[in-house]
Amino acid sequence: MIQPGSRPVTLLLLGHVDHGKSTLLRTMLGLPRESGSIGPDPRDLAETEIPLGWGLVHRRVERIVQTARREYRVIDCPGHQDAVKAIATGASRPDTALLIVSAVDGPLAQTREQLLLAGEAGIELAAVFLSKIDATSSVSVVDRVEKEVRDLLRDCGHDGERGALGSVPIVRGSAMSESSVSTLVGALDERIPDPPPEEGPFLFRVDSVMADSERGLVATGFVLRGAVGAGQAVEAIGFSREAPQAFVVGRVESGRHRQKRARAGDTVDLVFEGGAIGGFDRGTVLAAPNTIAAGTRFEALAYLRATSDGGIDGTVSGTWEPEIALWGVEMKSRVRLREGAVATEMIKPGAPVRIEVELAVPVAVERRLRFGIKEIGRTVGAGTVTRVTGERRGGS
Ligand SMILES: Nc1nc2c(ncn2[C@@H]2O[C@H](COP(=O)(O)OP(=O)(O)OP(=O)(O)O)[C@@H](O)[C@H]2O)c(=O)[nH]1
Ligand SMILES: [Mg+2]
Known about the structure:
This protein is α+β, with helices and mostly antiparallel strands.
């Protein structure tokens, strides 16, 4: 039974080129549905270009697969570069991932790179599908490949010991066979918990602030998660502020009409009476108390667009000083390359990089926060925070 109020699980398909990701998705879409509804033609997996923010795009196929238990928003990237871009920039925010490994070829270099990046980005594996079993010569070959996969999962921190989901099931089959894909889908249904319908504590991005003599201080912005209503206590975090400042929301308005509540996805005015004047500006976030803190230093994964695609010209070694675009403002930073299994000696366009960022001013930062990287006003990359480091003020 699909639980009322639950949202779809976003499932990212990972795997080396040609190992069967798209074939698997096609078979998933063609599975008989309990509800009897008929979706778009499952043979058509046309790619679309999805904006990543800051003028960047990536290519992907996104389809809803309905199973006995729930809906999955399945994301299939055409090829390795787009998969890596999706992970490093935090695009589409997958809840979990499914790794596809061809039983004929076994895990390859791209399998490892994607697993390492996904692990750093906090994306846990839900299962592994060993595809192309129908094209293998013997069971012992498949047993050996399965062992290689287990070893690789352990090496890359996906053995399930640290995660919330437990050990990772490996399902063998053919991506073209309905029966093996049904078994896989059953394993996903069983292993993945229903995601919570409400997505976390209140967080609001302030886009503009206006002092109005009649209404008070009006902060116009976007509710990123949670909900807010009049009388609720919030904290203003960052931009340039070290310590959080507490306020009480006087009114929630939309087009000058009073609203009871605003929730994730709403653009609204939050009105503060009197005391808030001069309290905050664009670049600040308003949040439920003690849920996010201001900081200046973090580690991140980033993807730098290729030079031919408007990225930086050449490589950077040592320290780089691009602008970081966050919460609608741009600030100076110092960026250094971080040691890591995939890291190269240089910051290189057209590739994922592990970096350490130091901002010139404190802003609200948290794990999985997305940001743009700019140089002389042009976006050259995007990234996601993997770990907040350094001293933090306020929040958790
Ligand atoms: N025999 C057999 N062939 C398969 C299986 N899965 C995929 N193939 C074939 O392998 C080739 C590649 O499959 P795709 O599904 O396009 O692979 P992909 O992972 O989406 O590849 P990229 O999008 O390029 O990364 C196609 O010719 C498929 O028909 C399988 O389980 N058994
Ligand atoms: Mg494909």
